[in-house]
Design a protein that fits this description.
This protein is mostly helical. It has one domain. The protein is about 55% helix and about 0% strand. It is built from five helices and no strands. It has helices at about 5-10, 10-20, 45-60, 65-75, 75-85. It is rod-shaped, with a radius of gyration of 24 Å. The two termini are about 35 Å apart.
């Protein structure tokens, strides 16, 4: 989160109105609900994880054991189990 000076982004009339309610305080203005992104949508992490998990399941189905998959994907055996059995 980045702090902005009110005078740099808001009209003077709005600043005067806000000063009636919260003069000298910091106000957090949330984004509109419809502009929120879900986890990993901005960075591509969600897509990467989805592809990785699919690859883990394919390899397990073709005979790779959990220990080998854990080492190959640098995950714990418990994480591999969660992926496989999900």
């Amino acid at each position: 989160m980045k702090y902005l000076k009110a005078q740099d982004v808001l009209p003077a009339e709005l600043i005067k109105e806000l000063q009636k309610y919260a003069s000298g305080n910091i106000i957090y203005i949330p984004k509109p609900k419809d502009s929120h992104l879900k986890w990993g949508e901005l960075t591509g992490s969600k897509e990467y994880t989805k592809k990785r998990n699919s690859h883990v399941k394919e390899k397990h189905a073709s005979g790779y054991d959990i220990e080998t998959l854990a080492q190959e994907f640098c995950l714990s055996t418990d994480s591999i189990k969660k992926i496989i059995y999900a």
